[in-house]
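This follows on from our talk about sequence and fold. I would like you to pick a protein and set down its sequence and fold. Go ahead and set the record down below:
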Amino acid sequence: MCDLVQAVEWPVRVSLRESKLGVLDALCEWQFMRGIAYLTALAHGAAPVHLIQDLSQRPRSEAVREGAHVELIDRLQSAAQGVPFDVLNEVLRTCAQLLSGGPYSMFVVAVGLATDSGPELREGIERSAALSVQWSATPEIQASLSAAGSVNNLIGAWVEWSERAAADQDRDRATSNDIGSHPAHALPAAEDLPEWLRPFLATVLGTNADST
C-alpha cells in the first residue's frame, strides 16, 4: 500500500502557463491530503474500506483538469483531520527545512517525488528533471512541492521503521517528537505554506482545541 500511496503521475514537461501550474499545485494538494490520511490510518492502526479505495486513486493531471478530484480531496481531508500533532508537525518541519535549504532542496524534492511516482526508470528521470526545472523556474510552486515531498518522505520512513525487528521501539518513535532523523527544524510561518494548506491546519487546530 505504501508504494501505491506514494505514486503520482507528475508532469514530464515544464510549463510556465498559469493553468499548468494550477494543475501541478492541485496534484501537490491531492498528494499531501492523501499522504496525511494514510499516515493517520497508520497512526490509528485501522482504515475503513472507503478510505483505502480513496487512497488507491492515483493523482493524475487529467483528473485535475476535469475537476474529478475535488470531492475526493474533501474526503481525504476529512480522514486526515485525525492526524496526531507530532506527525503533522514532523511534516511541517521537514517542509520548512526544504524551503530554507537552498539549491539542494530542489534535487531532494524532485528526485524523491519522481522515485516514488512509479517503477519506470525513464519516466522517473523525466519527472525528476521536469520537477527540478519547475522548482527553479517558478518559485511560487516550491511550497506545494515541498509539502508533497515531506509527506512522501515520512511515509517511506514510517514503513521502514515498521519493518525493523524492534517494532515496539519504532512505534514509540512514531508517536514522539523525535520521529524524524534530523534535528528538529522550526515550524514554518503560515505565509510560507501553500494557500490550500492553511485552512486545513486551522481546522485541525480547531478540532483538537475543541476536544481538549
About this structure: The radius of gyration is 16 Å.
